[in-house]
Fold:
Amino acid sequence: MAGSSFWQSLWLGITASGEKINMKVLHVIPFLSGSCGGPVQAVTQLCQELRNQGVETAIATTTIDQDKTRVIPDFVPVYSFGRQFCSILPSEFAFSLGLKHWLKRRSGEFDLLHIHYLFTYPSAVACHYARKYKIPYIIRPAGMLDSFSLSKSALRKKIYIFLLEKKNLCRASAVHFTSSEEMCQAERLRLGYQSALVPLGLNLERFINLGPLKGEFRKRYPQTINKKIILFLSRLDPKKGLDILIAALKILAVKRDDFIFVLAGSGDKNYEKFLSRALVSAGLTEICVLTGFLEGSEKSALLADADVFVLPSYDENFGMAVVEAMAARLAVIISNRVNIHKLIEDYRAGIVTGLNAGEIAFAIERIISDERLRLEMGAQGERLVEENFNVKKIARQMIAVYSQYLRPGDVS
Structure:
């Protein structure tokens, strides 16, 4: 894998002559539900910025996520198709005849396919037609080749890799990883593919001025007034380490009563019930606010009012929620299983802990007790995001990757 200087020089080589980029890229993603987490929003933001930079971009997806949180990007065509479920197959592999027929007819109109996620019908059928019509394609596994992910339904995934995904990955122009740790974990499988390392990007415009929103969340939830807000803002999933965080807050609550825990997000209903029971068992219900899934101005208001962000994940291939928190100038506490943890340590933008409740409780107390430290970490986090994850920069890196693998004559 070449270094970032290669991508920068390649990008400069494309644009220095003043020639217009003429490139059509189709992104294929199984769902566009905002409640599925930051990676979905990162795809839509990337597509928007690619169009801003001259790339003709479209999205093909399915309606497996028929909820009110679908993320529809501005000015990017979205082609959405229904799914047909079969009782003998897992839901993620539900067929979509509409998507299949559309890709058969229309995929040849694009210069390259950027396919997101593995072990799904949309990704598999997109790979099939890309190979059939000799269209270059890039796959982003989205952490699904990490050891933690592969340990879930392990036998089924081993069979699936042997029958389908090994060919899909090895015949891809490149496999798109978003962190070096994710890439290293996947390399242990020795599948023999070409790698491209480009982080996820974030549109920073909505984080430029959160000041006017400060106090809005506290007005909506008066119990947070004059309390330090400890924030968890992410998809509710067992891998996010909420069991450890609840145990850490139980330890902290014995020592002090000047904080409140805001749990923002949604997930599987059974897991949400489990979390409610865990909070009752830990005696934290009186100091906990459950908001459900938040987006738009409500989410921004919460980020503006929070004091510290915590994500003690058992596994996190990137951590888009962490990036958003840092963009909002929040000090962050994350586990060493979040794959961008080394960058956060290097910038001193937060505290990295092990998967230990006592260690997390100590880190939270240290940050909420020291306003100067919170402000310093918040400023460093904002700088980290601007320098490494600004979607404008990420789009330029992605265009350089695309350009390397396009067929001769596809860029003019």
